[in-house]
Amino acid sequence: MKALRNFLDKIKPQFEKGEKFGIFGSTFEAFESFLFVSDKVTSKGSHIRDNIDMKRTMSVVVIALVPALLFGMWNVGYQHFLSLGEQADFWATFWFGFLKVFPIIVVCYVVGLGIEFAFAQMRGHEVNEGFLVTGMIIPLILPPETPLWMVAVATAFAVIIGKEVFGGTGMNILNPALTARAFLFFAYPSNMSGDKVWIAEKADAFSGATPLGDALVGNIDKIPSPLEMIIGNIPGSIGETSVIAILIGAFILLYTGVGSWRIMFSVITGGLVMGWIFNLCAVNEYMQIPAWEHLIMGGFAFGAIFMATDPVTASQTNKGKFIYGFFIGLLAVLIRVVNPAYPEGMMLAILFMNVFAPLIDHYVIEANIKKRLKRAKKLINI
Amino acid sequence: MPTITKIRKGFDIRLIGEAEKTIKELETNRYALKPTDFIGVFPKLLIKEGDEVKAGSPVFFDKYRDNIVFTSPVSGKISEIRRGAKRVLLEIIINADPDISYIDFEKANPNDLTRELIIENMLKSGVWPLIRQRPYSVIADPADNPKAIFISAFDTSPLAPDNDLIVHGQGEIFQTGLDAIAKLTSGKVHLNLKADNPSSRVFSKSKNVQINEFTGPHPAGNISVQIQNIDPINKGDIIWYLYPQDVLTIGRLFIEGKFDASRMVALTGSEILKTKYYKTHIGASIEGMIEDNVTDIKKRFISGNVLTGSKIESTGFVGFYDSQVTVIPEGDHYEFLGWGLPNCNKFSFYRSFCSWMTPNKKFRIDTNINGGVRAFVMTGQFEKVFPMNIYPMQLIKAVLIEDIDLMENLGIYEVDEEDFALCEFISTSKIEIQSIIRKGLDLMRKEMS
Which chain B residues contact residue A59 at CB under 8 A? Predict the structure, then answer.
């Protein structure tokens, strides 16, 4: 380690502002601080600081995503061989999925981080770690058949228009990963929905519709069993299918306190409430499916655990988080069941509530302000 | 029975190096007054280098409020007046006599004096600056009539000195001090004790005050937290506050008729070989405390505690309001992949480090920032260590955009920078929150005057 440190110390001056490689200053800093926690000490305020930093926080989320990612890779292979009617052993299955998914991840990171580094250099600040998570989530919410160039275009759109124009990580209004998905959804609908895209290189005769796709067109009897939807060996976006893998991630997020239990809890509550309302006034078969089944269908679980909880785009007050989450769950199920154009409502529900999150916070804070004013007034009246 | 308030949110930082309960007389002849200890004071010197002073002789006064005079804590010769950039007055160093001689002030039972006489006595003897006010945490204005006076008798900050030990056996002096303070307000004097263990009889037997009890982690001992639970500050309200050692100083002024700036200072921190309490005076040099008593790595010397104290040199002086010196390792070293390893020996508020599994273990923490400065990303964290009915992050952002109305609405009058020290400690984005809040308070004070 000493040799590496010495090497970094030796080349560091060349990356200072105005020096030979000055334009890569932020890039150098990003790699250096990745390898070594910096030697900077406190200069004002508290003399000691917690060991937590953005890198560690973001790595926790990435680790939490790994179960869904690994299962997704296997499932991509599994669905492929299933549609062909072939038998393949575990490793062959996984390998097929790996070869499909890994390029998407690489493209996503290369494009996204490239833009992040460029913007960090332009603005003269350190590279933010936020994209480490975004770059992992984007592949997981795409169909396995998404062309790589689309991944690149969508990632660039999400990072530039979704995030950097607002000032970078921490300032964005919309969840960047969902911005990427929404971009593809509306720009290239044929590659993002229907029953052609969910299974990689599938045989033509095989149906390949997702449970939500089936439900929307009335094929309620074709919906896989709840057990299959929990395990996740069904067609769908790469990381969304397995509720078990997602719950492992949820456990990691809740255990470390990185993900907000308030949002997860209220999204689920919202989904259940809307499901029950449909049950009560059911006029078709889709409205009759048990409320809890909505939680394990499609992207609901993935959205609730990993996307709604993005701290930057969610409500920032604790009370606001309950309201924000509740409406995500409610709207997601509402859109799914009622709107014939969109089989899945989670993406739109989260994006919609992202936009409303500042408003929710505004009213929560306004209530605090009113309370303070009331306290002052009461004293005057005495 | 006093009311017990339970503070649920907060966090105790478990550091190595609490002061052992042994008391030693500090041998030093160097003392200093540091005008930088006093927020918002513009010092005008009344002495020059080489002048002889007695304990209680005026040294400087505040240009903006010229009745507030700062006096020498000991008798001796002004050996040096140290200035910094732009001739800012940093330290007025006094070489003390072996035996302290005092200026005579009036001896009296405060119960027999009027409010005006008490204030006059306190102003001219130089004990007045011990009383500070909320909002803004500046020295109290004698012309104000505060709605209450708060005394926090316990300190919950890391490695804090034990006030029970400090006041032990000084019941009469403490009570005299309280009597004088009680005359300063038409409202109540609140003496706030820790409910968990029985406080010293000096505190629990105090009269002429209302005793309140608190329990819970840091910042339960912070004045702002106590005020908000007992008598919250509304716009226009003024509350004065002070600490037990200040009450003793005021008590001695009225009993003995002199500015006896005696002070007990706890020497704490992981880099101290033998921690203990020192008996000395306000503004003592720390040289005598750390001589042959520290480890030989690079260290940081702090007057005060690790969260709110100020950095001093190894030849520096204890601050006017501080009764603690902390010495911790300087953290100016790189650490390979330090952010990624499980690290059970690293202290953290968060569970992503496995050190939370050893809830009683104490840690040696250095001054490394442990990361880089980022924009606000994580939410809901500050609220866990901020036991007040205020939205901390929103208030910080209001200060950053200098929105006066919003700051006022979000409760800037009720807070002090020290209340945000824990937020600063746990901040994932490594934001300098205390200085942001100080900036906000200074801005409000300027706007409101």
Answer: 339-340
What are B75-97's pLDDT values in tens digits? 999 999 999 999 999 999 999 99
CB of B345 within 8 Å of a chain A CB? The answer is no
pLDDT the model gives residue A380 = 64
Whole-angstrom CA distances from B268 to B19, B154, B265, B289 are 5, 17, 9, 10
DSSP B123-157: HHHT-GGG-EEETTTEEPPTT---SEEEEE----S
In whole angstroms, what is the distance from residue B306 CA to residue B270 CA?
11
Secondary structure (H, E, C), B350-370: CCCCHHHHCCCCCECCCCECC
Q: Are A52 and B370 in contact (CB under 8 A)?
A: yes
**A17: in domain:** no
Is residue A11 classed as helix, strand or coil in its secondary structure?
helix
Q: Is A119 exposed, middle or buried (0-12, 13-18, 19+ CB in 10 A)?
A: buried
Q: Find the domain containing A213 and state its range.
A: 57-367
| ipTM over cut 0.95 | no
Residue B436 has pLDDT above 90, yes or no: yes
Q: Do B380 and A372 touch (CB under 8 A)?
A: no
* B342–chain A Cβ distance below 8 A for any pair: no
For residue A33, being part of any structural domain is answered with no
Question: How many structural domains comprise chain A?
Answer: 1
B127 has a pLDDT exceeding 90: yes
Note whether residue A34 is domain-resident: no
Pick A50's closest partner by Cβ from B370, B372, B383: B370
Helix (H/G/I), strand (E/B), else coil: B416? coil
Mean pLDDT over each residue of chain B, to the nearest integer: 91
B224 φ/ψ angles, rounded to the nearest 5 degrees: -60, -40
Scanning every residue of chain B, which has its alpha carbon at the shortest distance from the alpha carbon of A314? B379
Give B299-329 pLDDT, tens digit per residue. 999 999 999 999 999 999 999 999 999 999 9
Nearest one of B10, B228, B258, B18 to B126, comparing CA atoms:
B258
Cα torsion A177, A180, A186, A188 to 10°: value is: -130
Share of chain B above pLDDT 70, in %: 100
CB nearest to B370's CB, from A53, A59, A128: A53
Poorest-confidence range of B6-10, B126-130, B199-203?
Answer: B199-203
Local structure of residue A224 (DSSP, 8 states)? P
Task: Give me the mean pLDDT over the A83-91 stretch.
Answer: 85
**Rounded average pLDDT over A112-137:** 87
Is A8 domain-assigned? no
pLDDT digits (tens, 9 = 90+) for B237-269: 999 999 999 999 999 999 999 999 999 999 999
CA B89 vs CA B37, B44, B93, B108, B317: distances in Å:
11, 9, 11, 35, 15
Distance of CA A165 to the CA centre of its chain: 20
What pLDDT, on the 0 to 100 scale, is given for residue A203? 66
Task: Give the integer Cα–Cα distance in Å for B325 and A46.
Answer: 14
The beta-carbon neighbor of A257 closest among B330, B350, B383 is B350
